[in-house]
Design a protein that fits this description.
- Strands 3-4-2-5-1-6-7-8-15 form a 9-stranded mixed β-sheet, with helices on both faces. Strands 10-9-14-13-11-12 form a 6-stranded mixed β-sheet, with helices on both faces.
- By secondary structure, it is of the alpha/beta class.
- It folds into 2 domains: about 210 residues, Rossmann fold, CATH 3.40.50.300; about 100 residues, 3-Layer(aba) Sandwich (Rossmann fold), CATH 3.40.50.
- The chain contains 11 helices and 15 strands.
Amino acid sequence: MKLLRFLLFPFSILYCVITSIRNYLFDVGILKSTSFNIPVIAVGNLSVGGTGKTPQIEYLIRLLEKDYKVAVLSRGYKRKTNGFQIVNNNHSAEDVGDEPLQFFKKFKNITVAVDADRVNGINQLLKTENPPNIVLLDDAFQHRKVKAKTYILLTKYNDLYINDFVFPTGNLRESRKGAKRADIVIVTKCPNNLSLKEQETITKKLNIKNNKKVFFTTIEYDETLRGKKDLLINESKEKKVVLVTGIANPKPLLQYLTTKEIDFEHLKYPDHHNFSVSDLDFIKQTFNKIETTNKIILTTEKDYMRLENKIDSLCYISIKTKFLEKEVVFMSEIKNYISG
């Protein structure tokens, strides 16, 4: 795989040139960006998948929903519908995407919508009977047609964009120079015990200009497994677990379950996987082969959106973003951007 990526290096150079030209055209105004009269916060990354956008969006929802009419707008990755859709109780993950459905089910006081055309999506939201006064754009760092008020760039602790290269040799969607558009950079999925000294070292390495803020977060797992019946994580030590994941990077979850001494068998699928009938049959067969009744099927919250009502004995584990330091500073920065 590494050899193949090396051989594709000329295509990476071409891809880098194309994306750089596109960004330049937006920067000088030849390609137009649309601004709006309400604050728009764009959350995204330079890398392909797995940086923790979903828990970061959820963090922002919790931070803002009491004081603002919040809308989340996503493209609805891998959905089977087209155009603008406001997520409602009749939608499935296949209709609107797993992450938008997760936001909708989890937060009852916000509006969740999908549209690949983010400009049209925001305009449609503003035409609704109860329009938002703030919009969170999910996975929209490269969506230059919207001029956001604030850009939050996420990069993984063990896969910093500064160490990567553009696709297909690396995993970057554009050149590292794209980070200059960020107002805030968050290093995600850090170890809980990451020292201040190492945080300072990483901050210097990222070389963020103009006094822009860098924050460090980790993932915090819920101690309760949710589903048709809730179960404390420690209670699952006594059970046989079939773990089903369709996420970009399941390693942190595997490590967490291992530290909790959970006995699990892992069935791994690609990110945002649409589970077929044969996939579901295989999962059920794997589960049925376990020679005990004391067993469960565990999945991620995102995958639960796709698997709910399709598999019995299913539960999920949810995650939250947790700031290692300076959470109050981050909250203040966001509110200053909104009010400024």
